[in-house]
């Protein structure tokens, strides 16, 4: 199951689990749409392809909550 990280690793923008616009690689590195575009849809951590992250419905978020651990480290 996806952790659904709550923020972009590059700029710190919020990436809510119920909202479209987050991109992930196979290791679940998470980036907002603007950063994914600037990265040419390639993960800077592993070199993998960044893909649209699926959303999680509110009903399922109640049973399987998204992570609250933020990944932004300010290194941009």
UniProtKB/TrEMBL annotation:
Pfam families for this protein: DUF1272
Domain of life: Bacteria
Region (Disordered), start-end ranges: 57-76
InterPro entries listed in its UniProt record: DUF1272 (IPR010696)
Protein name as it appears in the record: DUF1272 domain-containing protein
Protein's organism: Pontixanthobacter rizhaonensis
């Amino acid at each position: 199951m996806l952790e659904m990280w709550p923020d972009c690793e590059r700029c710190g923008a919020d990436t809510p689990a119920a909202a479209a616009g987050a991109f992930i690689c196979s290791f679940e590195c998470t980036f907002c749409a603007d950063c994914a575009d600037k990265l040419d849809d390639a993960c800077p951590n592993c070199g993998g392809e960044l893909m649209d992250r699926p959303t999680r419905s509110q009903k399922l978020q109640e049973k399987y909550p998204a992570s609250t651990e933020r990944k932004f480290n300010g290194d941009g």
